[in-house]
Amino acid sequence: MSSADRDVELTQQQNNFPQVFDEKEGFEANEKALSATPDGEEPNQDEIKNLRHIAENLPISAWLVAVVELCERFTYYGMSGLFQNYANLPLDGSQGRGALGLGHQGATGLTTFNQFWCYVTPIVGAIVADQYLGKYKTIVVFSIIYMIGLLILVCTSIPSSLEHGAGLGGFIVAILVIGLGTGGIKSNVAPLIADQYKRKKMAIKTVEKTGERVVIDPALTIQRIYMIFYGCINVGSLSLLATPYMERYIGFWSGYLLCLCMFALGSCVLIVGRKFYVVRPPQGSIITDAFKALWIMVVNRNMDAPKPSWQAVNGGRKARTNLPWDDHFIDELKRALVACRVFAFYPVYWVVYGQFSGNFVTQADQMEGHGVPNDLMQNFDPISIIVFIPILEMGIYPILRRFRIQFRPITRIAVGFVVASLAMMYAAIVQHLIYSAGPCYEHPGCDASLVDGQTTGNRVHIAIQTPAYVFIGLSEIFASVSGLEYAYTKAPPSMKSFVQSMYLLTNAFGSAIAEALTPAAYDPAILWMFVGLAVASFLAGIIFYITYRHLNYQEDEMNALDAEDPDTALPHEASATEDKKKEENHA
């Protein structure tokens, strides 16, 4: 080939491809190629690979949902954080006024059942939302149920009710009703806040101050939404800074009444802000159809078996010709199953997490409080989360992205399990220190520790327990936040609440395991229970990573969310005609 011919060919190659030829280096990325996409348009593969990815700010409606969740969590933690003492200590007993006098095991059993119940009921809320009412209306309905339960709790915890024996019955009824209410809210509020963000595909943006071209990544925005969401949850849980003192100096009823008032405030924000929310209509019999499709998968041992196209080719004379779904629905269901499969390891984590509101509270009661209520120590968990979330979101995560280091959800979840194991190992060390100190050694609360009729605990300062809560809080940022994010991003649009409820259900399984461990919650056996949980959480984290690390490499593909018609996300005030039309179009 002549020199002239080679020059012509090189010119043609430069015109056809967004690259420049260098005779020494070969083809390499050209800056012009990375700036070829106009702002607002989807980036090409070179831009996705080479430009920095950023998250967007939250819309105002997302902040309103976050405030509602803050108020609900203020109520839940401020109330349930008192349950261990309320059920454990007798009326006018030591370390607070007490109430039901069920003892350590009885109190741990009831508080663990409360956790279990609160994470089973989200299934009910998910079915009601996805099939009948939609997320917003479901949250309103279950908020009313929640408030009824709070009223029962307040009324049966006043001193006159306790003296007349209404405490135990009222407490059981209250936790059943409140658990139903919180379950209906929990399965819907997490997907509702992410629904407020409408972008589904990556886009190019030029930063005004620096002129840098970046990629707006919806997956990173969803991650930011759930980081802020979880931060609001833990700001709300700081109610435990107030309610333990109200318990000690006024009575349990006062703490419960404060929680009721805060929940009423959150309900007002929910109702007043209804015009701002982006609300998706319910999708009919989507959940029952999903279970029918799953049954067909099991019977045929093939995940594609429920597809009408598969039935037409492979069904033969037994082919199902009247299936109420199309092939796309089955593809969505398979995508949801990926998330549910990842959640299988979470019960181990939740057993560890549940210790901070149960056995950790009792452990604090076994040490010298120096005027600090034993159930006040729980606040170091949300405080650590509130401190670490900004550090990670505004410091560590952007630095990792700038250096093109990907900290994918599967990796974050595995790290969360390992950090949780450190919390349990530290708790075991603290328990050993308690048993090594007088005056009661392996039998804390013995008569030798009584001062003016109250137990003072063994000679170990209560503050030494702090790192255990810090480890638990840090583990939540990695494991729990990433779980919320995974449940939303991997769920198809029609099953957001249902997949979220499946994630929450793993907490119920964890509570069931913790309930089975209740017989071991006595001195001195509880030390070895802490050690066992530390080993179990560490091994679960390692096995989880080995099992699912391949999903890290499929993350971008799975996060290519469906290109939904923006009209399927309607303001709450849309007309009934528009709702009906869009539901028909979706079907």
UniProtKB/TrEMBL annotation:
<dbReference type="InterPro" id="IPR000109">
    <property type="entry name" value="POT_fam"/>
</dbReference>
<feature type="region of interest" description="Disordered">
    <location>
        <begin position="1"/>
        <end position="23"/>
    </location>
</feature>
<dbReference type="GO" id="GO:0071916">
    <property type="term" value="F:dipeptide transmembrane transporter activity"/>
</dbReference>
<dbReference type="InterPro" id="IPR036259">
    <property type="entry name" value="MFS_trans_sf"/>
</dbReference>
<feature type="transmembrane region" description="Helical">
    <location>
        <begin position="225"/>
        <end position="246"/>
    </location>
</feature>
<keyword id="KW-0472">Membrane</keyword>
<keyword id="KW-1133">Transmembrane helix</keyword>
<protein>
    <submittedName>
        <fullName>POT family-domain-containing protein</fullName>
    </submittedName>
</protein>
<feature type="transmembrane region" description="Helical">
    <location>
        <begin position="252"/>
        <end position="273"/>
    </location>
</feature>
<feature type="transmembrane region" description="Helical">
    <location>
        <begin position="412"/>
        <end position="434"/>
    </location>
</feature>
<feature type="transmembrane region" description="Helical">
    <location>
        <begin position="139"/>
        <end position="159"/>
    </location>
</feature>
<feature type="transmembrane region" description="Helical">
    <location>
        <begin position="468"/>
        <end position="489"/>
    </location>
</feature>
<feature type="transmembrane region" description="Helical">
    <location>
        <begin position="171"/>
        <end position="194"/>
    </location>
</feature>
<feature type="compositionally biased region" description="Basic and acidic residues">
    <location>
        <begin position="575"/>
        <end position="587"/>
    </location>
</feature>
<feature type="region of interest" description="Disordered">
    <location>
        <begin position="562"/>
        <end position="587"/>
    </location>
</feature>
<comment type="similarity">
    <text>Belongs to the major facilitator superfamily. Proton-dependent oligopeptide transporter (POT/PTR) (TC 2.A.17) family.</text>
</comment>
<feature type="transmembrane region" description="Helical">
    <location>
        <begin position="382"/>
        <end position="400"/>
    </location>
</feature>
<dbReference type="Pfam" id="PF00854">
    <property type="entry name" value="PTR2"/>
</dbReference>
<keyword id="KW-0812">Transmembrane</keyword>
<feature type="transmembrane region" description="Helical">
    <location>
        <begin position="501"/>
        <end position="520"/>
    </location>
</feature>
<feature type="transmembrane region" description="Helical">
    <location>
        <begin position="343"/>
        <end position="362"/>
    </location>
</feature>
<dbReference type="GO" id="GO:0005886">
    <property type="term" value="C:plasma membrane"/>
</dbReference>
<dbReference type="InterPro" id="IPR018456">
    <property type="entry name" value="PTR2_symporter_CS"/>
</dbReference>
<feature type="transmembrane region" description="Helical">
    <location>
        <begin position="526"/>
        <end position="548"/>
    </location>
</feature>
<keyword id="KW-0813">Transport</keyword>
